[in-house]
């Protein structure tokens, strides 16, 4: 159990990052130290070998090969050469052809060795010190071999220096590793600090308090992006929660008002005995209220189904021009009853793929609103056109317009810009929400432009190719229709 608790996978990220960093840094350092040591060793050996070969050449130049055994000339130059070699720590040995020592200068004279058989370098491990030796065959002017020259240097000093270097590297390595580890730990801590803050904030945010934000002030790097993404997500969540709460409250309110009216009317009717006409009259009134309730719940159900499942049926090819004409015809009596002039500019043959019933509902809602909110003597225009990629239908009226502060919210469920007037007209504030959802399901949207006191124009955009439509369309937050001011 114990080991498991200390398994590296359970370490905090900061520790894991530091451990990785130290491991990689340690490996790099070790490779680097090995390289430095190896370079140094090779450099020293090459230097020694070059010195040995140079010295051998000088000795050969001063060698007398005339006699039966080779010997250094007894000249001042040869004596000076021997002194210089001695100062440089080099020993010289001259051997006869049979391998016996003819002459020897320096401490190497005492070092025993097998008679040489060929020219070249050799390292002789000897008690107390290793010797590096260069052996060179000596030939007489005629070409016959007359002996050997050996120049040697003790490797004592160089191996001491290399040993010191090795110790220093070995000591420096853990020290550097420790420093790197501390630095790494500090840097990892700094880099992870914002993440810790994000985690703490996220923990503090519950379903009931979505107001807190991370509010990251650092650079827009990976962490900055993470923080902004979380903040944006919280924005959306908060708006979504608020919308849902408002919706529940609104729906309850919308249902309660007619129910309370029903209850009141029933109470008054039952307060005393009445004649059959009075009962009938009361029941007819109640029927009206109940109709309103049925209408409201049908709309709510329709909207809920639409939002949940979208358009279930396969889109069918339809004649949009004919559809718009029939919607206009359906509402013409209402327009006439309100003395509103209804004009249409609909080219023939606008085709589209979609759900006929839903689209009829969409345009009925919009046109009904336009007529409903336009005062007598006003004018409502329905214009349609296609631009190659989408069909557009604009519904303009000369009504009171919608104030800019209401515009962003009129597509929300139950939202009414002018609650009293709207309720008096029988609207529950679901018409635009429904229209927008239907347009969205068809891959399109609704734009609205309005000027207070002058009128409002809703423009429905429906892509001709529904493939880019309902299923592919991203879900826009309800109440945030594409709009123009
Ligand atoms: P309602 O059932 O109240 O008409 P809607 O969702 O259809 O609900 O419309 C939401 C609100 O938008 C309305 O209450 C009204 O204030 C405003 N509105 C909609 N259409 C128009 C219009 N053509 N002119 C002015 N205001 C409008």
Structural class: alpha+beta
In the predicted model, the low-confidence regions spanning at least 5 consecutive residues are: 467-485
As laid out across the biggest beta sheet, the strand order is 4-3-7-6-5
Largest sheet: 5 strands, antiparallel
Task: Describe the fold and architecture.
The structure is a single chain. With 485 residues, the protein is of the alpha+beta class. Helix content is 52%, strand content 18%. The chain is built from 10 helices and 14 strands. The chain has helices at 2-5, 13-61, 76-87, 156-204, 222-270, 276-309, 320-337, 356-373, 419-424, 431-441, and strands spanning 63-64, 71-72, 90-96, 101-105, 120-126, 129-139, 145-154, 316-319, 341-345, 351-354, 379-386, 390-397, 445-451, 455-463. The strands form 4 sheets. A 5-stranded antiparallel sheet has the order 4-3-7-6-5. A 5-stranded mixed sheet has the order 9-11-12-14-13, covered by helices on one side. Strand 5 and strand 6 (129-139) form a beta hairpin. The two termini are 66 Å apart. Bound molecules: adenosine-5'-diphosphate. Adenosine-5'-diphosphate binds at residues 365, 369-370, 373, 397, 399-400, 402, 410, 415-418, 422, 427-433, 456.
């Amino acid at each position: 159990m114990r080991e498991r608790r200390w398994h590296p996978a359970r370490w905090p990220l900061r520790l894991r990052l530091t451990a990785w960093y130290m491991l990689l840094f340690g490996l790099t350092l070790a490779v680097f130290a090995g390289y430095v040591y190896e370079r140094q060793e090779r450099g020293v050996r090459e230097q020694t070998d070059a010195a040995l070969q140079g010295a051998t050449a000088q000795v050969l130049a001063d060698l007398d090969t005339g006699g039966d055994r080779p010997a250094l000339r007894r000249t001042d130059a040869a004596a000076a050469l021997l002194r210089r070699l001695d100062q440089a720590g080099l020993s010289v040995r001259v051997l006869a052809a049979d391998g016996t020592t003819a002459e020897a200068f320096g401490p190497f004279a005492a070092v025993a060795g097998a008679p040489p058989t060929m020219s070249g370098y050799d390292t002789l491990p000897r008690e107390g010190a290793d010797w590096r030796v260069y052996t060179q065959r000596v030939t007489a002017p005629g070409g016959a071999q007359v002996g050997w020259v050996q120049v040697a240097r003790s490797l004592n000093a160089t191996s001491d220096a290399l040993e010191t270097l090795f110790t220093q590297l070995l000591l420096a390595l853990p020290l550097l590793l420790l420093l790197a580890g501390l630095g790494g730990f500090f840097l990892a801590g700094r880099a992870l600090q914002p993440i810790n803050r994000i985690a703490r904030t996220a923990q503090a945010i519950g379903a009931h308090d979505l107001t807190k934000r991370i509010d990251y002030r650092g650079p827009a790097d990976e962490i900055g992006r993470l923080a902004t993404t979380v903040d944006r997500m919280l924005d959306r969540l908060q708006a979504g929660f608020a919308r849902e709460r408002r919706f529940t409250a609104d729906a309850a309110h919308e249902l309660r008002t007619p129910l309370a009216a029903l209850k009141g009317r029933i109470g008054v009717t039952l307060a005393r005995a009445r004649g059959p006409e009075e009962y009938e009259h009361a029941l007819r009134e109640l029927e009206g209220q109940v109709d309103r309730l049925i209408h409201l719940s049908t709309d709510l159900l329709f909207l809920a189904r639409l939002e949940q499942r979208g358009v279930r049926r396969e889109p069918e090819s339809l004649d949009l021009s004919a559809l718009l004409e029939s919607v206009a015809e359906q509402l013409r009596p209402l327009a006439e009853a309100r003395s509103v002039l209804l004009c249409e500019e609909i080219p023939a043959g606008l085709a589209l793929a979609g759900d006929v019933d839903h689209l009829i509902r969409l345009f009925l809602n919009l046109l009904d609103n336009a007529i409903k909110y336009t005062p007598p003597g006003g004018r409502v225009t329905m214009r349609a056109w296609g631009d190659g990629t989408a069909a557009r239908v604009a519904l303009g009226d000369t009504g009171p317009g919608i104030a800019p502060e209401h515009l962003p919210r009129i597509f929300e469920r139950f939202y009414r810009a002018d609650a009293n007037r709207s309720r008096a007209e029988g609207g529950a504030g679901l018409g635009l929400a429904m229209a927008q959802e239907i347009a969205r399901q068809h891959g399109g949207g609704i734009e609205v432009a309005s000027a207070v006191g002058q009128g409002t124009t809703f423009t429905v955009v429906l892509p001709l190719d529904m493939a880019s439509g309902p299923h592919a369309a991203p879900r826009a937050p309800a109440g945030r229709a594409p709009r123009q001011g």
